[in-house]
Amino acid sequence: MNIKITKTLTPKAIPTDESALGFGRIFSDHMFIMNYKADKGWYDPRIVPFGDISLSPAAMVLHYSQTIFEGLKAYRTQTSGSSDGGKIQLFRARDNFKRMNLSARRMVIPEIPEDIAIEALKELIKLDREWVPKSDGASLYIRPFIFAADPFIGVRPGSEYMFVIITSPSGPYYATGLNPVGIYVEENYVRAVKGGTGYTKTGGNYAASLAGQVEAQKHNLAQVLWLDGIERKYIEEVGAMNIFFVINNEIITPELQGSVLEGITRKSVLELCRKWDMKVTERKISIQEIADAYKNGTLQEVFGTGTAAVISPVGFLKWGELAMEINNNKIGEISAKLYQTLTGIQYGKIVDDMGWTMEVCD
Ligand SMILES: *Cc1c(COP(=O)(O)O)cnc(C)c1O
Predict the structure, then answer these.
(1) What does the alpha-carbon distance between residue 163 and residue 150 come to, in Å, rounded to a whole number?
(2) What pTM, to 2 d.p., does this model score?
(3) Which of 94, 102, 242, 253 to mutate to test the pocket of ligand 1 (most atoms within 8 A of CB)?
(4) Distance 52 CA to ligand 1 centre (A)
(5) C-alpha to C-alpha distance for 161 and 110, rounded to whole angstroms
(6) Which of 106, 153, 223, 307 has its CA 20 to 30 A from that of 23?
(7) CA distance readout (Å), 108 to 6, 74, 112, 289, 357
(8) Are strands 223-227 and 181-186 parallel, antiparallel or unpaired?
């Protein structure tokens, strides 16, 4: 692939106070764009200065939400004794682009070969390498997305698309350390059902989740725990994270059956726990089973998993009138070990014997 590169003539100042980066508000100097037309396929791959894009008000995505996205990070490895960090690497990036193609098939969006997407991403990061934060816990968040751009207001699959990658330097997710979050069990709204789009990263899923999020905030809780859309009994996921429970030393996560998104962090946690010979189970788990385990004292840990937070300990669960405090609102042993191992591999502090990392550049 021949990527045309147009460098910015007005580079922005790269933030020096990495503790103040926050998440998703600052963007690096460049972005990758590629267009698609039904009769041409993907064409015109280019890296251009980060900036606004122009679209027809009739662009199909604005009306019917034919769009998909991914979320991953580039990490600067910490070499001991050097303050400026080592090389830049990605974590399981191929899996992100595989999943993007899974989402594409469901949303009738043309796929992009993983090798091409990875090549585009590597070129973009190389050009903006100074935007990859240097401090521990900070990273360059990467957002690839594809949307239908045809100026047409009928409902049908688009025939014109744009694939864009933007990147955003982000601070440590937990400014004050790994603090447990409070979760609200949503019994009214649902996120997804089998046969729907729950297993894809498509915009509409997140728009549909906002009302539940507002409900959780009314209760002063950070995130929503979604139950299945049919019986409102079985646990699916939490916010934009997968969820795990430790009951009686068994690590349990809801099985994938079409409505749950298959997180790459979820998959990594399962692989690590199996490697460590822990008892791990993917199965149906009801909110009643969690309440029972809480009451009889066997509910040891609850944590969410996702690229942004890696491991997010849950300290509090509210289900109707029942308020459950988990592990005295402290991070559990297994959650901490998983967090240390995953971030250790991502930041090159632990040898990657799983083959999960991919070097981009120095
Ligand atoms: C992205 C996402 C996750 C987590 O996936 P990772 O690949 O681990 O980041 C979980 N649930 C939903 C709904 C998501 O959008």
Answers:
(1) 13
(2) 0.96
(3) 242
(4) 27
(5) 8
(6) 106
(7) 31, 29, 12, 38, 30
(8) parallel
Q: Which residues contact 295 (CB under 8 A, 6 or more apart)?
A: none
Q: Which of the listed residues 261, 338, 339, 342 should we mutate to test ligand 1's pocket, taking the one with most ligand atoms within 8 A of CB?
A: 261
Average pLDDT, the chain: 95
Give dist(CA 124, CA 22) in Å, integer: 22
303 CA distance to ligand 1 centroid (A)?
13
**CB of 260 closer than 6 A to ligand 1?**
no
| Helix intervals (H) in 38-169 | 60-64, 93-106, 114-127
Ligand 1 neighbour 198 (Cβ under 6 A): no
Model confidence pLDDT, tens digit, residues 188-244: 999 999 999 999 999 999 999 999 999 999 999 999 999 999 999 999 999 999 999
Cα separation, 128 vs 119, in Å, equals 14
Task: Specify the residue for token string 């590169």.
Answer: 5
Q: Give the rounded distance of the alpha carbon of 142 from its chain centre.
A: 10
DSSP notation for 163-224: EEEEEEEE--S-TTSS--EEEEEESS-----TTTTTTS-BHHHHHHHHHHHHHHHHTT-SEE
Which amino acid, one-letter code, is at 118?
Answer: I
Give the pLDDT score at 96.
98
Q: How far is the CA of 175 from the centre of ligand 1 (A)?
A: 21
> What is the whole-number distance in angstroms between the Cα of residue 309 and the centre of ligand 1?
10
Residue type, 26: I
- How far from 106 is each of 114, 147, 310, CA to CA, in Å? 17, 13, 26
Q: Which two tokens stand for residue 75?
A: 């990490």
307 in helix, strand or coil? coil
